[in-house]
Amino acid sequence: MLTADRSFARPRPRTGAQVRAVAAAGVAVSFLLLAGCGGGGGDAKATAAPAPSATADDFGCLSPEQAKAGSVTFPSSSGQDVEAFVTGSGHTALVLTHQADGDVCQWVPHAMELGQDGYRAIAVDSAGDDVAEVTAAVIYARAKGATKVLLVGASKGATAVLSAAGSITPPVDAVVSLSAPSAYGSMDSGPVVPKLTMPVFYMASDLDGEFADAARQLSKATKKAKENDLTIVDGPNHGVSMLNDEANYTKVKAFLKKYGS
């Protein structure tokens, strides 16, 4: 069983939520120090330092305008805050999950394009609890008015969307898996995909090591899906990079349109 992404996760900078938490802690310390510096007079009053203004997370790739308009945070069932970039509108939401060697920025260009196509694209910045993050993004999308939700994942993110699709209620409308390993970390989509009933689209490159074999095995096990589309493309590209080929991207977008319209 394939258990690892092709690339290892690189060290990641602090997220906006972590930076804001540190800033808040600094404000609390400043308040305590001021409170202790009232002098000898009993009427001296301490004045707290002004709270820092909330700044939208740019994830290292968004413009200030994009960050202000689309950087969001929502809770997950695991208790962590999930950060994401949201763009577009409409009643169909696409939850986009990235590879282990990337972050939310990996999906931003495609999210922008899909948003212009009429979808509400939600690119999740994974902090490690992938299945809970995907589920939280679906809850967020539905709370914002989405009547259809499709999941699109790349590599590790594809394992996450396949795994999450088995437990989300009501079920999502379709799933796209790009170069998914059948298992990654604590996630194992192998026992899940035989139970999936929504349409599933698998894509992998024929020269991408064992990921093409994993796609074939997962597709073969996906017996109950309304549609089970397996596409093996030429070349060595992996995950999101397969969409750099316009022919591949067109196939994915056709599947999204078929079940997201």
Give an account of the 3D structure:
By secondary structure, the chain is α/β, with parallel strands linked by helices. The protein folds into two domains: 12-50; 57-260, Alpha/Beta hydrolase fold, catalytic domain (Rossmann fold, 3-Layer(aba) Sandwich). 33% of the residues lie in helices and 20% in strands. The protein is built from seven helices and ten strands. It has an eight-stranded mixed sheet, with helices on both faces. The protein has a two-stranded antiparallel ribbon with strand order 7-8. Strand 1 (71-75) and strand 2 (81-87) form a beta hairpin. Helix 4 (130-143) crosses helix 5 (156-165). The longest helix is centred in the N-terminal third of the chain and has 20 residues, at 16-35. It is globular, with a radius of gyration of 21 Å. The two termini are 35 Å apart. Mean pLDDT is 84; it is low at 7-53.
| Percent range for β-strand residues | 15-25%
pLDDT under 50 segments (min length 5)? 7-53
Query: Please, what is the CATH homologous superfamily of the largest domain?
Result: Alpha/Beta hydrolase fold, catalytic domain
Sheet having the most strands: 8 strands, mixed
Helical residue percent band: 25-40%
Give the CA-CA distance, first to last residue. Answer: 35 Å
